[in-house]
Write a structure and sequence with these properties.
The chain is an alpha/beta fold and about 425 residues long. Helices cover about 35% and strands about 25% of the residues. It has an eight-stranded mixed sheet with strand order 12-11-8-13-16-17-18-19, with helices on both faces. Strands 2-1-3-4-5 form a five-stranded parallel sheet, with helices on both faces. The chain starts with a strand and ends in a 9-residue tail after the last helix. The C terminus is likely disordered. Bound molecules: cytidine-5'-triphosphate.
């Protein structure tokens, strides 16, 4: 971040109390920070606080003649290498999505050609509101980087998604935005995520507890590593990561078709989806009535998408996931061999583990090696996973035996299979 010029916009939410710390973290890394506050933001923190931590007078007003004559707002817009708005309130996101230029911050966002990142912070119901969802969707499509929000207890006492990310996490997420390129630069990565739904009748289906969080985190991590990412997603309620192309599907059959359409362009395929192994053989055209005491549903196997990709004559680098309730390593290794994968990420599921929660514990296996990625937020594990995949992929490209080198220089955390 050394020498990067960051324009930090602060809009009016309680999370603004964390923003002075964010300024400090950015400056610790060598960035120059110019703070711009909205009128509402000044109800939470004073400009004086930001001036003290940023070492620059804070800009608050489009009509401030003295400030404008020192550096006009168009000049300021050109000055920035990046605009970060943290916290970004629901109101600010709406203004940005609609292209309003009714205060200094929104005007700067419109006048600047620098990348824009926003760290949303709001009440969980406001974040889930259809209007906010639509605004975020517009911003994401436009290439605005949406960082977070995190889930947890909120200042208003409610619980859910809407908390601003912690300053350190925001800083980490800015690194790839400021220095594009990374270990997967120029690579195309195809990822599946979430559950599938298999139709029983027009109103019922069979599905599973997958939330899609892991796959969406992997998509973000691959994007941050410089890849062009396509995300084939089952039915999940997660926003599309900015800069990622998303293809929505419902059933295993639809997911198979979408993957086969996209895989020809992919260098790496990562199969995080919890695809149904069986589906009702003959879904009913009409709602099934409760006419008997017992009901049996005849089920047939779905196509194993991962194995089908691995069997393609010109296959990408193929990474599977193994979700196991027992003998995790043994079962995962058996899947690695049986499905002919390059790599498999394994985790224990069930008993409130892994499914529908923000944390996970993962390890990665390949022929001849193993790496423990430890326990932590899915976002952090996803980044570690992408780093291991990028390393193994690069070695395969160089013609070296996959991951032998990684095993050799990964010290104590790698054990040979
Ligand atoms: N998978 C897939 N298509 C399927 C089933 C699974 O692509 N029809 C992929 C998953 O995305 C995951 C891997 O296969 O990457 C492992 O899935 P899992 O359900 O754990 O194992 P299965 O191979 O289905 O075996 P089992 O259910 O017997 O454990």
């Amino acid at each position: 971040m050394h020498g990067k010029r960051i324009l930090l916009g602060v809009s009016g939410g309680i999370a603004a109390y964390k923003s002075p710390d964010l300024v400090r973290r950015l400056r610790e890394r060598g960035a120059e920070v110019q703070v711009v506050m909205t009128e509402a933001a000044q109800k939470f923190v004073t400009p004086m606080t930001f001036q003290a931590v940023s070492g620059r007078p804070v800009r608050t007003d489009l009509w401030d003649e003295a400030a404008e004559s020192a550096m006009g707002h168009i000049e300021l817009a050109r000055w920035a290498n990046l605009i970060l708005v943290a916290p970004a309130t629901a109101d600010f996101l709406a203004r940005l999505a609609n292209g309003l230029a009714d205060n200094l911050l929104t005007t700067l966002c419109l006048a600047s050609e620098a990348p824009i990142a926003v760290a949303p912070a709001m009440n969980q119901a406001m974040w889930r509101h259809a209007a906010t969802r639509a605004n975020v969707e517009v911003l994401t499509r436009r290439g605005v980087h949406v960082l977070g929000p995190a889930e947890g207890e909120q200042a208003c006492g409610e619980f859910g998604a809407g908390r601003m990310l912690e300053p350190l996490e925001i800083v980490e997420r800015l690194v790839p935005i400021l220095s594009p390129g990374g270990p997967l630069r120029g690579r195309r990565v195809l990822i599946t995520a979430g559950p599938t739904r298999e139709r029983i009748d027009p109103v019922r289906f069979i599905s599973n507890r997958s939330s899609g969080r892991m796959g969406f985190a992997v998509a973000e991590a691959a994007r941050d590593a410089g890849a062009e990412v396509v995300l084939v997603a089952g039915p999940v309620s997660l926003p599309t990561p900015s800069g990622v192309r998303r293809v929505d599907v419902e059933s295993a059959a639809e997911m198979y078709e979408a993957v086969m359409r996209e895989v020809g362009n992919a260098d790496i395929y990562i199969s995080t989806a919890a695809v149904a192994d069986y589906r009702p053989a003959r879904p009913a055209d009409q709602k099934i009535k409760k006419t008997s005491d017992r009901l049996g549903i005849d089920m047939e196997r779905t196509t194993d998408i991962l194995a089908a990709v691995a069997a393609l004559p010109r296959r990408p680098f193929v990474v599977g996931f193994a979700a196991e309730t027992e003998s995790v390593e043994q079962n995962a290794r058996a899947k690695l061999v049986k499905k002919n994968l390059d790599m498999i990420a394994a985790n224990e599921v069930g008993h409130d583990k892994a499914f529908d929660c923000p944390d996970n514990e993962l390890f990665v296996l390949w022929r001849g090696g193993r790496r423990d990625l430890g326990h932590g937020p899915k976002t952090a594990l996803a980044r570690s996973l992408i780093a291991v995949i990028a390393e193994a992929y690069a070695q395969r490209e160089e013609g070296a035996a996959v991951c032998d080198g990684a095993a050799a220089h990964d010290g104590a955390r790698v054990t040979s299979a």
